[in-house]
Fold:
Amino acid sequence: MKDHISREEALELLRKYNKEPFHIRHGLTVEGVMRWYTGELGYGDDKDFWGIVGLLHDIDFEKYPQEHCLKAPELLREAGVGEDIIHGVVSHGYDLTVDVKPEHEMEKVLYATDELTGLIGAVALMHPSKSVMDMKVKSVRKKFKNLNFAAGCDREVIQAGAEMMGVELDELFDKTIQAMQSCEAAVDAEMKDLGLEE
Structure:
């Protein structure tokens, strides 16, 4: 798989359409999670590609929430982004806004972890540390079952994503916690550098 856009260009493109610090942080977090999973799943050579798909996955969400994953191809093509990245971005809206099914393992990981990073992040905010560094699977499992907690994080998508990846929910929770731990400090530092601390 090839990437047709540099990481710097991808971040600039994300920021062109997203101004809310929350959305930038989410993009940076999913980027870091995707990069971590390449090492876990044996796709280390593709970590930049996976990362860029993670960074850009919600490019259209802030400005065009009603056209999420529908507007993205237009925005990405205008910027000269390749079709493989576009397919990866669009497929995370499968069965929600589009009928583009995640096919490549990268797309399945994005589909499974996107909503989950939001849930884990919300659980972290309940901890005194406000960090994922001391996060336990049982904390995530408990909040996953409480549908009133972080209600915007779609449990059915997370469950379907685990099934797509062929893993149990607890394994998906554990690995995604590790992935978020691997990038938390870098995301915090980059948010500070961008002058976007919430």
